[in-house]
Design brief:
273 residues, Fructose-1,6-Bisphosphatase, Chain A, domain 1, D-Maltodextrin-Binding Protein, domain 2, 2 domains, binds D-MYO-inositol-1-phosphate, binds calcium ion, hydrolase
């Protein structure tokens, strides 16, 4: 089976496994803090995907949130970047609004990405250079919007912190409205499908955005860090994803004035995955 079809096939199978086991008891553990949860289903889904990829493509390398490929420090060859459940808090509390996110890169170049909204059975997919699709229907290029008529997505936690409040409040204030979905992968997919016009966040890991980046860039979306630089697939990053003119407006009018503060925040914070 061609690699792209294999990617979609195992994603859909992984989603079906999750749906089938939704009523089984969950084992919930905490990671870095009491609100950073991981479940047996996050781990089982990563293992399912890891095993399927290794069986079929033993020379491919895999980076996953729940431990796969921790030692990978370059992008040589075929690399899968996997978030088995993006939106674990939604998964635990709501049993919906979470996604499987996968991006495949070959020698650092985009190959293909998927974001699968498991409970709604909506597959966002893209092969670099071949357009992006939502359940088989080609997505249009996203529309350019000024902030004043844009819906932006942002985790409200960033508005509660002393070191970021002043940077982000004007963005929320000047937008049409703000949303927070709790799954970065879905945020990227929603920008790609024009449901929202931008997503801004201060810290994501490569597995949160690897799939979504490939999808949104296929429809004209721009993805950078908050200093306007390309994102790094091997470290944590800040993120601005938006249609082209809105990305320029956010960078020029809202983030650049805080360049020094943002540089300080970035120093040291984003050196590690
Ligand atoms: C999280 C979600 C969330 C984002 C966090 C991520 P996880 O991923 O994408 O929306 O705000 O930064 O860590 O842990 O649920 O896979
Ligand atoms: Ca997590
Ligand atoms: Ca994630
Ligand atoms: Ca996750």
């Amino acid at each position: 089976m061609e690699l792209y079809n294999f990617l979609k096939d195992i994603t859909l199978q992984a989603g079906e496994n999750i749906r089938k086991q939704l009523n089984e008891p969950l084992l919930i553990e905490t990671k870095s803090n009491p609100n950073d949860l991981v479940t047996n289903m996050d781990k089982a889904t990563e293992k399912f995907l890891f095993d399927r990829i290794q069986d079929t493509y033993p020379d491919h390398r895999i980076i996953g949130e729940e431990g796969s490929g921790k030692d990978i420090d370059n992008l040589n060859g075929v690399i899968w970047i996997i978030d088995p459940i993006d939106g674990t808090l939604n998964f635990v509390h709501q049993q919906e609004n979470f996604a499987i996110s996968i991006g495949i890169f070959i020698d650092g170049e985009k190959y293909a990405g998927v974001v699968y909204d498991v409970m709604r059975n909506i597959l966002f997919e893209a092969r670099a250079g071949h357009g992006a699709y939502k359940n088989g229907v080609k997505l249009e290029n996203i529309t350019e919007t000024p902030l004043a008529t844009s819906i932006i997505s942002m985790n409200p936690n960033w508005l509660t912190k002393d070191f970021t409040r002043d940077i982000y409040i004007p963005l929320v204030r000047d937008s049409r409205s703000a949303r927070s979905y709790g799954s970065a992968a879905l945020d990227f997919a929603y920008v790609a499908s024009n449901k929202i016009n931008a997503y801004i966040t201060l810290r994501l890991h490569p597995w949160d955005f690897a799939g979504g980046l490939i999808i949104v860039e296929e429809v004209g979306g721009i993805v950078t860090n908050q200093l306007g630089e390309p994102v790094n697939l091997l470290t944590a990053n800040s993120i601005v994803v938006a249609n082209k003119s809105l990305h320029t407006e956010i960078m020029n009018d809202y983030l650049s004035p805080f360049k020094l503060e943002l540089e300080k925040i970035h120093q040291g914070r984003f050196s590690k995955r």
